[in-house]
Write a structure and sequence with these properties.
The protein has a single domain, classed as Orthogonal Bundle (Arc Repressor Mutant, subunit A). Helix content is about 55%, strand content about 10%. The protein contains 5 helices and 3 strands. Strand 2 and strand 3 form a beta hairpin. Helix 3 packs across helix 5. The relative contact order is 0.11. This is ImmA/IrrE family metallo-endopeptidase.
Length: about 130
């Protein structure tokens, strides 16, 4: 299982921690510098979520962020969910035991959009693994 930092390294992106006390953002992706800045005061679980989310902005055009903010944030959330699910599924001998509601509770995913993404990404990962066999 790969860590969020190693996934970033594979993509040529550095992860740097900053003192986030008083900051409004938990994480920031700087495309020009190829670096993700993460609040060092987050717990390990939240750091992982934020790193995967920020990594989801890798292919986004910063010039269009204001116009596409909602779309870009949803795409970044999908990337986070994808990586969290990929990790989660390594703990199962049989993916039929996976419960998406427990997964959502564990990762504090609350929106209907997150629910749809969890289901879609789960199905994509399970089908991908099935086809590899």
């Amino acid at each position: 299982m790969m860590s969020p930092e190693s996934v970033c390294a594979e993509n040529g992106i550095d992860v740097v921690f900053f003192d986030g006390r008083g900051a409004k953002n938990k994480g920031i992706f700087n495309k020009n510098q190829k670096v993700i800045l993460i609040d060092s005061y987050l717990d390990d679980h939240e750091k992982k979520k934020v790193i995967y989310h920020e990594l989801g902005h890798k292919d986004h055009d910063p010039d269009y962020y204001k116009r596409n903010r909602e779309l870009y944030e949803l795409q970044a959330d999908r990337n986070m969910i994808h990586h969290l699910l990929k990790e989660e599924l390594t703990y199962y001998d049989d993916t039929k035991d996976f419960n998406y509601l427990h997964f959502m509770e564990k990762h504090k995913l609350k929106s209907m959009a997150n629910e749809v993404m969890v289901k879609e990404e789960f199905n994509a990962l399970v089908n991908e693994n099935w086809q590899d066999k």
